[in-house]
Amino acid sequence: MLSNPKNAIWEAFLLTGVVFVIGLLLGISYENGKIDQINEYYADSEISLTDIMAMNKIIDTKNLSCEVLIDSNLGFADKIYEEVRLLEKYEDSGKISDGMKLAHKKYDLLRTFLWVNSGETLKRCRNFSVVVYLYEYESDDLIQKANQNVWSKVLYDLKQDVGRDIILIPIAVDSNLTSLNSLVGRFDIESFPAVIINDKNVLTKLSSVEEIKKYL
């Protein structure tokens, strides 16, 4: 005897619903695991930054060399740069909650502190450059996204070419951070993405590696 077609439809509908809910819960669990990993990285980086800033506070009383100061800032910059690349890799796989967005904002705050700290070091030690890349994280404009991707690639190539002579700090300018807004407000920037070199030269038009190197 054939089963009732109506029952079969409801059974299929129920099975589909169960599979969807299980898939959603597994997806959330997977993303929460990634967020936990990113938060562990962040906590460690936060400690590292506090340590560097504390060290800079004793510059006047301890004979710290420029090499030590630059190495500490450079090491921290490279550390969070790689961590944020991992975060963005997770984001590219698809966002389910706002956890990734919050983690990104926390890293933008760390990088803002790094910008301030590196600027203070730059006043004393002139044998390196600080390159701050400001972009819009929340932009839905496909042309702007493509432009920002090209900028990111150029700056990555610059870092590979110049190496330890620069501290590269990418920051999402639309993170709604008061400290970051105050820093950016010092410059007459009308559009983004933009690059600020050594707190004085501002580039808003896409440039090649060789052109950027002229400002270092």
Helical residues, percent? 55-70%
The total of beta strands comes to 4
Q: Count the helices. How many?
A: 6
Order of helices and strands: HHHEHEHEEH
Poorly predicted runs are 18-30
User: In the CATH scheme, what's the topology name?
Assistant: Glutaredoxin
Total domain units: 1
Strand content: 5-15%
Distance between the termini: 83 Å
The CATH homologous superfamily name equals: Glutaredoxin
What is the CATH architecture assignment?
Answer: 3-Layer(aba) Sandwich
Q: What is the alpha-carbon Rg in Å?
A: 23 Å
The chain-level mean pLDDT equals: 75
The dominant shape is globular
Task: Provide key terms for this protein.
single chain; 216 residues; alpha+beta; Glutaredoxin; 4 strands
